Amino acid sequence: MATQFLIAGLGNPGPEYVLTRHNAGFWFIDRFVQEFGAQFSSKSKHSAELAQLKISGNTWFIVKPMAYMNKSGVPIRSVAQYYNIDTSHILVAHDELDFSPGVIRFKAGGGHGGHNGLRDIIQQLGSNDFKRLRIGIGRSGNMIDYVLKSPSRLERDLIDQSIEDCHSLIPDLMGDESQKAVQKLHGS
Length: 188
Description:
Helices cover 34% and strands 23% of the residues. A seven-stranded mixed sheet has the order 2-3-4-1-5-7-6. The longest helix has 14 residues, at 153-166. The N and C termini lie far apart (31 Å). The protein has seven helices and seven strands. It has 188 residues and is of the alpha/beta class.
């Protein structure tokens, strides 16, 4: 039986944020959609850009919330409710200060860890049962200034390579082969 999944990438809309570390989730989702040959279309009723694709017979809704990071939950909830997607079939890709650039980690459930985007998603969904793809951006100095600045060329290359290496694992991370995919992603 086919399953529906939702993958959301977190970031801030607008050209002034495109290259900032806080948009690592958007970088991931843009590359994922490109790799699978889909295209985003604007869906004002969801306050999001939305793409749809089929992988192994399953339907995947790819979401870029067009709300600021701390309001990401509203568009994600809207799409999940509209398409009747269970929270356990939602994957959120986001920037992670606790990992160095070039490191991506998968996590099922858990708290928000101080991430305002995750905090809002948990509040809006009424659940923390969704999965997370934590894209390392490192940390330095004032956190707010740091996430709203562009990474160095080397840092961006490391982030981009980790994103590239991760894409093929997404269907397995969300499916029956999740343990093998996590081991491969985490290098163990």
